[in-house]
Each structure stands twice: as structure tokens, then as C-alpha cells.
Amino acid sequence: MRLAILCAATFLSTGALAAPLTPTQINAIDAAATKALATTGVPAASVAVVQDGKIVYAHAYGLQREGVPARAEARYKIASISKQFTAAALLLLAEDGKISLDDPVSKYLPDLTRANEVKVRQLLSHTSGYRDYWPQDFSFIDMETPTTPEHILDKWAKTPLDFDPGTRWQYSNTGYVAAGRIVEQVSGMTLLDFLKSRIFDRLGMHPVDLDTGLTDADPLGYHRYAAGPVRVEQQPAPGWLYAAGELAMSASDLARWDISVIDQSVMKPASYREQQTEVLLTSGAGTNYGLGVEVDITKGHRRISHGGEAVGYLSENRIYPDDRAAIVVLDNADFGNAQTSIADSIEKILFADAGDVGRAKAVFEDLRAGRIDRAQFTANGNHYFTPQAIADYRTSLAALGEPKSFERRSSSLRGGFTAESYTVDYGTKKLTIILRAEPGAKGRIEQFTVYPAD
Q: Is the dihedral of CA 358, 360, 361, 362 positive or negative?
């Protein structure tokens, strides 16, 4: 399949508060996406970018099926990214007082193995012990036949647990099938209808069931064996993804959900905290997983994310709540990991080291001149910079002349602050800078200290 470049670009209204991407950033995103498709052979990808809580860029690349240029509004199977919606459904029912995440599964599905010991939240955090029914990265034999949630639970959730509940983390699509059935029992609606009424309609989203809702206007899924030709992939029979991954939508639709997470507009703040808090095992060990989402810190930025894999499709969704930013990348191949490569590139573009270095360099230059912008600092940061401190910074730094290089060395999180370290190299002398700040692009600086390097 020949690659069509830069097809179906859509620039969305950004609103008064949204900072648009610069032409340099747009060119860099386009170059990264184009290169990823060309390198991997993935036919098409669709991207949406959120800044300042608004969609600022939506763009499609390549061919979504033979001879058909990719469209930004086309719908892709997002697979396991759907899990955060299933988790949100249960959190909403908990807000309604109709369920508790600490209820035993036996209250709703008493026939499952050790259901009186497994909690509902353990289904959502992959700590239940129920064996995953689909660990393969391809359709297995059973998937040639249509299935139901009941069949999946009968075959995989009524066998011995892989481990005692809460003692290990192991990805389990089976647990999410059970979670979906609980949503339906408690709400009296199908899972998709519940999500439509409580989330999708409210946000102006238009997802469909990936088994029944896609049309010729949407991308085909592709596969390849080893380094062989790219071929249209045969899809599994209906019913196999259900609450573990039944949704298909456009990149912009998924970005609308991301914005609602940033704005906390669908659930109560406590529910978002619960979904985004890392679940700990009974041993106290971490899992880097909340309820339907992965949780981590990347270069000092809190990230809520999840990937998806369906037969012939891969997807990546990343939310940076403190930065009011998000990245969505969907593609129509189950090989190559173009979605990860593109998302990584966009992440670097949005949170470029150059920008971080630029902020640190600007503060450093102010101190060399004997001044600081106190509006950039917290009360503690301002307390540290006494007139004597500023005078000493000016005298000692100005005497060194112009540095040869200014590099960021590391980033982490501590005490609720991002923590960045930099090295300033003068050739014969090096300095270390520690910059701690409130999370987010506009977070105030708690600490800016400079020391002779080791």
C-alpha cells in the first residue's frame, strides 16, 4: 500500500484560552507521523492534540484503506482504551449510591470463582486473579465464532484464580467483562447505552460498537507476517471485546473525553482521584495502574494513559491533567507500534527539553543580572531569595562569563513538586541547578538553587 502524505488535515477552533501549536511544532508532528508510517509500513494514523484544555490540532496521515486517503474524522477501534470508560461507568454508579467498589463480586456475579473474596475495584485494577481470556496478539480459534459475556465468564472466570486477590498485578480482559456485566445489572441498561447517556451525549462524542458500527468510511485493519506484505486483517467474530474494548471512535472524540478528564466535568473530583491513584498490592508494592488507566510521571509531568490493541488496530491515549494537555494517536495496523512512536514524538514536542531549558536559562540569566521575577515563585521560593542571596548570585555568576552549554540532566517528582536538574558548563568549571516547581506548564517555582558541580 502506497503511503499518502498529509491527508485530511483538520484544524479545530481552539477557543480564547488555548495556545495554538506553533508552525514549528506542527511541522515536527507531521514529520514524526510521516516517518513512523514510512518506517513501519502502517497504512494510516490519526492524531489529536489538546493544549490548555482545547483540541488544537487534528490530522490524519496515509491511506485508511486501498486508495482512500485517511480522514481526521474517521473512527478507529480503540480496544483497551475502552477500559477507562467501563471503570468510569462503575464510578458513576458508585456516585449514585447504587454500588460500592469494595463490594464483593459475589453480590452481582455469585457463580464466579471465589467471588466472595474478589472486590469490584480489583476487576478494574487487574488484581482480581481472574485469568485473561485473550493474552495473544492475534485471533485465537474460539474467536472465529461469535460469543457473549456469559460465555467468556463461564470459560475463564469459573476456573481457579491465577493468584490470591490483591497479591499480584496481571492484565485481565476477563475482569473487565465481569465489570461490564455488573454495570448492566446495576443500571438496567446495556453498557454502551449507559455510557451514551451518562458520558458520550454529554460530551458530544459519537463512538460506536466496533463489531457493528463501522462503515466503509472508516479505516480497515491491517496485519503483516514477519516482514511480509501488508494485508487486510480478518476481524474476529462479534462479542469478543465487549467491556474490555468494544469502542470505536475518532481521535477527536477521544480527545473530548480527555478534556473532560482534565476539566473533571463528568464525575466528581473524588472519582477522578480514585481512578488516577496507583493501586497497591497487599504487599505494598506499586502497580503503576489505577482503575482502567496507567499512572506515571514522565519528565516531571503527571501522565494518565492507556494503549489499545484490536485485531488490525493499535492506539495510544495520554492525558497530562496538570498541564491541561493530551495526545491521541490511532492507527490501522496491529504491527509496527507507530502509535507509540508518534505519541512519544508529540510528547517530546509538547514538553520539549528546549522549553524546559529555556525557563531555567531565563531565571539563571535574571540571577546573573541580580534580579528575579517574583511572580514566578512560590512564597517559599521568594523567601529563599533575600537581597543578600540575589547579590551573591549576581556577583558569583556574572564573574564566570558566558557558559558553553546549558543541559537538563534529570527530572522526577518529590513532595508534590517537579524536580529538574541542569548542568551549566563553562569549560573549566561546571555548575548544577536544581529547579523544583508546582506541576503543570505554569507551575510556580518552589526552588531554584545553583551549586558547584562535583
A: positive
Q: What pTM, to 2 d.p., does this model score?
A: 0.80
Q: Does the pLDDT value for residue 17 go beyond 60? A: no
Which residue reads 456469559 in cell numbers? 150
Q: Could you tell me the strand order of the sheet in which 417-425 lies?
A: 405-414, 417-425, 430-437, 445-452
DSSP assigned state of 162:
S
Contacts 24+ apart (CB under 8 A), 366-375: 367/393, 367/394, 367/397, 367/448, 367/450, 368/393, 368/394, 368/397, 368/398, 369/394, 369/398, 370/394, 370/398
Cα–Cα distances (Å) from 191 to 177, 252, 268, in that order, read 11, 22, 20
CA angle 52, 53, 56 (to 5 degrees): 75
How confident is the prediction for the chain on average, in pLDDT? 92
- d(CA 129, CA 50) in angstroms, rounded, equals 36
d(CA 410, CA 422): 7
**Among 186, 181, 168, which Cα is nearest to 122's?**
168
Q: In what order do the strands lie in the sheet with 247-249?
A: 76-77, 247-249, 208-209
Structural contact between residues 294 and 304, judged by C-beta atoms closer than 8 angstroms? yes
